[in-house]
Structure formats: structure tokens, C-alpha cells
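Minutes, structural biology subgroup

Action item carried over from last meeting: produce the C-alpha cell record for VOC family protein (Microbacterium lacus). EB confirmed the sequence was re-checked against the source entry. Recorded below for completeness.
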Amino acid sequence: MLSIGTIVLSVEDIGRAGDFWRAALGYVNRSEPSEDWVILDPADKAKWHEPGTSIALSVTGYPQHYPPRIHLDLYAQDQAGEIRRLIALGAQEVDWHGYPPDADYVVLEDTEGNRFCVVAVSDHVTV
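Output recorded by EB:
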């Protein structure tokens, strides 16, 4: 059975993007970054093949596409607090009018324009 090991995000400024995602998720560099590539792992992940999804940042030189075809969903117990923290780290709110009336998520983008949702964790299950 397959599992997701690493999600690759395209970036323009690898240092700025690395700073954002390390602070946002508490991740660490797997090894020293190159000029165009770095893999970030959960801090408690001892070996690359262990469970826990990693994020790789890749300088591609391609412009961002909107809307993006893939994005991250980040779960938060304190959604409002996490949104404030992420904005303080450099994230921006996306001016998006596609929210349903009962939306449990807010769309943000990182310092490089990669979109992600901050989803409120609740006791109910959404299908």
C-alpha cells in the first residue's frame, strides 16, 4: 500500500518559504538546503521513511497558477489563534468568495502564494 511521504511546494524564495513552514509546522530541515531544494520533516521523524508527511520546497522558476490544483488542509483546535499566528509569520488571507455558509475552513496562502486551508477541528465528522 502506498502512503504520502512528501508534498512538494514550488517556491521562488527558498529561505523565506523554509522559514515560514518551519515556524508554521514546527518542522526541521532533513539536511542542509541547496539553492533550489530542501525537505522539511516533522521534528520527531528520525528516518525519512518513517510515518509523518514531509514538505519539500523546490525553486522551479514557474509562475504560480490560480486557482492552484492542489493545496494543504491544516487542522487546528484553535482556528482563530492559528490564523493569527500564521499571518504574523507572513501568510496572507485569500480574498475568496467561494465559502459555503457552514464553512469550517479559512483559505490562506504562504509567503510564496501556495494556498492552504486552516480547518477547525470539531467533534462532528464531515463527509
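Discussion: The chain has one domain: 6-61+70-120.
Next step: EB to file the record with the rest of the batch.
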